[in-house]
């Protein structure tokens, strides 16, 4: 598109778009001679990657809209037809959340596949994201699509693709689908008003929900305790779809109904009480904690809007709450999975767990002490899920995997993150610990004592200018000399002991090739390890595939808590002021 004139890009859009609202947006910009906004919307086409599509909802090649969804669906359809055996008869699973345009885009996607002769399992009504991969696996479908932008702001939406193995797509399928989209840009159909009456469009929504909950029941181990606990739980759905699913799961597990955060209970695409509907964001749990204070509850539970992520908090004193990090929850769930596996009398050397490379190394320490296999992979459940499937094929059982961004995978049927299973697993853990006179937070301290003290400090810088991001990472790679491998040698007084650059393909610990064992990242991603004065750190910096952020993941381990906290503080300061030059580049911070 870079070679086309702006007039040509606009003319092509108006030729193809059949949605009056988005056509009017473009026509108005043309009338206003708003070249800057037209360039922003038209010059660069939204890129289809391993995260599928996710962007602001608006007219133009760079955004999410009817035309982009149809073109993506046509490309996906033709690629699946060529690549997957018996694709048309096996069909596609499609679901959607409550965001603006989600239902319409689910039906547009279904219309494209029906027009091409595919069987379509179109979930009716709002579903949580995990139901789509579950249905792909249960029905042995050829692929799946979920229309959602997860925890993004209200003006965004997305198009998430699952492969026939019920895991989010990875390469080379992302590039194959992207190329197929480019070959199928002319819309062959628009919205099929008779879609629901088509014999190819099948409704098995309730059946799949029942099957999902029947599978979820396998995680329910202490129902008698759940039925008799005095613990109170507050739950927030963050204006998303999870209430219907989590309340059913609570009943399934034998819990009394939780206390809902009234202002956030029902699906609302406006997300009126939160600017960023992500439980990880600072202040996102304020309403839930306020409700818990009023109701005398001990724990706060939360899912993100499409209910594939989970967060929790515990009242640690009359006035204090501890919000668990994703890494702390991952450690707790891993210990729970290990305990259950050993209790079943299974050989520990056949147990495996998976985490992303930016997640805590505490499970790695746990695995070394307990004798199970731990594998790390690139960030994202597309990698975690596929790594789990590979381990299963090698003869391991993989009951748990996670990433620090509050995503947790349980059991063998869903190789993706699932906020509903995480919610009831946490609640069941809390009840079991209460029966032993403990809390989740006190149990976490026991795990630190047993496996070592690990503390994380994860955050991000906001940068909306890709060339600036490139310049920042170029400088880090040329810190001493201009040879692309002159990285910093120390940070906060600690000597850097290893560097793994998954963008350029460099691993300082793997001579003579210096090639990393992990696959390369599509964006910038560098991991540093450093040590000194009895403290070790792991610092990973990477760009986000879905947000204008430079993220960093920092973990320190040591014997002295005060020293560890001081090191974390100094590393963050040096990262911001010296490595990233945050003030010079006007980087935003949360």
TrEMBL record:
Subcellular location field: Cytoplasm
Native source species: Mycena chlorophos
One Pfam family per UniProt: PGM_PMM_III
Keywords in alphabetical order: Carbohydrate metabolism, Cytoplasm, Glucose metabolism, Isomerase, Magnesium, Metal-binding, Phosphoprotein
Protein name: Phosphoglucomutase 1
MF terms (GO), sorted A to Z: magnesium ion binding; phosphopentomutase activity
Domain annotation Alpha-D-phosphohexomutase alpha/beta/alpha: ranges: 46-185, 211-314, 325-451
Family: Belongs to the phosphohexose mutase family.
Signal peptide: none
CDD domains per UniProt: PGM2
Major location category of this protein: cytoplasm
Gene3D superfamilies the record matches: Alpha-D-Glucose-1,6-Bisphosphate, subunit A, domain 3 (3.40.120.10)
Cofactor(s) listed in the protein's UniProt record: Mg(2+)
GO biological process: glucose metabolic process; purine ribonucleoside salvage
GO cellular component terms attached to this protein's record: cytoplasm; nucleus
Annotated InterPro entries: A-D-PHexomutase_a/b/a-I (IPR005844), A-D-PHexomutase_a/b/a-I/II/III (IPR016055), A-D-PHexomutase_a/b/a-II (IPR005845), A-D-PHexomutase_a/b/a-III (IPR005846), A-D-PHexomutase_C_sf (IPR036900), A-D-PHexomutase_CS (IPR016066)
Domain of life: Eukaryota
């Amino acid at each position: 598109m870079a070679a086309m004139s702006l007039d040509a890009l606009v003319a092509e859009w108006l030729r193809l778009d059949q949605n009056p609202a988005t056509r009017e947006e473009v026509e108005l910009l043309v009338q206003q001679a708003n070249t800057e906004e037209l360039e922003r919307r038209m010059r660069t086409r939204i890129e289809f990657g391993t995260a599928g599509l996710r962007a602001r909802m608006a007219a133009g090649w760079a955004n999410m809209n009817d035309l982009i969804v149809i073109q993506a669906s046509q490309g996906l359809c033709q690629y699946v037809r060529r690549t997957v055996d018996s694709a048309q008869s096996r069909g596609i699973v499609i679901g959607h959340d409550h965001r603006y345009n989600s239902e319409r885009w689910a039906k547009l996607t279904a219309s494209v596949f029906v027009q091409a002769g595919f069987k379509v399992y179109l979930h009716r009504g709002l579903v949580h994201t995990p139901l789509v991969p579950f249905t792909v696996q249960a029905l042995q479908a050829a692929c799946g699509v979920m229309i959602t932008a997860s925890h993004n702001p209200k003006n965004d939406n997305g198009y998430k693709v699952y492969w026939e193995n019920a895991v989010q797509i990875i390469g080379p399928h992302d590039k194959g689908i992207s190329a197929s989209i480019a070959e199928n840009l002319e819309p062959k159909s628009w919205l099929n008003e008779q879609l629901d009456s088509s014999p190819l469009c099948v409704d098995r929504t309730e059946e799949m929900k029942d099957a999902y909950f029947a599978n979820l029941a396998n995680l329910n181990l202490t129902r008698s305790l759940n039925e008799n606990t005095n613990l109170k739980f507050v739950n927030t759905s963050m204006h998303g779809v999870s209430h219907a699913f989590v309340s059913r799961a609570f009943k399934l597990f034998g819990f009394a109904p939780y206390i809902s955060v009234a202002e956030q209970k029902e699906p609302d695409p406006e997300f009126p009480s939160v600017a960023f509907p992500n439980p990880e964001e600072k202040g996102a749990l304020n309403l839930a904690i306020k409700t818990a204070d009023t109701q005398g509850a001990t724990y706060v539970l939360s899912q993100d809007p499409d209910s594939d992520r989970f967060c929790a908090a515990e009242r640690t004193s009359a006035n204090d709450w501890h919000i668990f990090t994703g890494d702390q929850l991952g450690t707790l769930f891993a210990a729970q999975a290990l305990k259950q596996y050993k209790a079943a009398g299974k050989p520990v050397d056949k147990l495996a767990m998976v985490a992303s490379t930016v997640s805590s190394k505490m499970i790695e320490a746990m695995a070394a002490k307990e004798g199970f296999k731990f594998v790390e992979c690139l960030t994202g459940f597309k990698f975690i899920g596929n790594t789990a499937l590979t381990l299963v094929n090698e003869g391991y059982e993989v009951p748990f995997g996670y990433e620090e961004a509050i995503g947790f995978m349980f059991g063998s049927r869903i190789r993706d993150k699932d906020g509903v299973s995480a919610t009831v697993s946490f609640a069941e853990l809390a009840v079991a610990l209460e029966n032993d006179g403990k809390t989740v937070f006190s149990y976490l301290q026991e795990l630190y004592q047993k496996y070592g003290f690990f503390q994380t400090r994860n955050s991000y810088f906001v940068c909306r200018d890709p060339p600036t991001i490139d310049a920042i990472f170029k400088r880090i790679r040329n810190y001493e000399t201009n040879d692309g491998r002159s990285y910093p040698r120390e940070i906060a007084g600690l000597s850097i002991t290893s560097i793994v650059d998954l963008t350029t393909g460099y691993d300082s610990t793997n001579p003579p090739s210096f090639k990393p064992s992990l696959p390369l990242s599509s964006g910038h991603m560098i991991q540093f390890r450093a040590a000194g004065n009895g403290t070790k750190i792991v610092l990973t910096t990477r760009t986000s595939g879905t947000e204008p952020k430079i993220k960093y993941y920092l973990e320190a381990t040591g014997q002295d808590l005060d020293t560890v906290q001081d090191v974390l503080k100094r590393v963050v300061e040096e990262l911001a002021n010296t490595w990233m030059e945050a003030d010079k580049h006007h980087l935003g911070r949360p």
